[in-house]
Structure formats: structure tokens, C-alpha cells
Amino acid sequence: MTKTTKEHMTMVTKILLGAAAAAAGYVLVSNLPDLRRYLKISTM
After folding, report:
1. How far is it, in rounded angstroms, from Cα 31 to Cα 20?
2. φ, ψ for residue 31 (rounded to 5)?
3. CA nearest neighbour of 24 among 14, 32, 33
């Protein structure tokens, strides 16, 4: 594995992780009202 390929793979991994984090964050934000309701129900 050459250095440039390794750097490229690192960059791709960072992009994928960033995209996954953004998607997870978006899902969490969009489900926040339901999550709050669920937490209220579960704590009762």
C-alpha cells in the first residue's frame, strides 16, 4: 500500500464517518419530540 493510497483511504474514512455522524444527528433531531415523549412515558 502506497502512502497516497493510505492517505486517500483515511480521507474516505473520515468522510464516511462524518456523513454517518451527520445522518445520526439528523435522525436524532427529527425524532426528538417522540424521544421526549418516550422518556416521559418510561420514567413514569
Report:
1. 16
2. -100, 10
3. 32
Is pTM beyond 0.85? Reply is no
- Residues 22-34 pLDDT 10s: 999 888 888 888 8
SS (H, E, C) the chain: CCHHHHHHHHHHHHHHHHHHHHHHHHHHHHCHHHHHHHHHHHHC
Say whether 15 sits in a helix, a strand or coil: helix
The sign of the torsion formed by the CA atoms of 33, 35, 39, 42 equals positive
Residue 12 C-alpha cell reads as 474516505
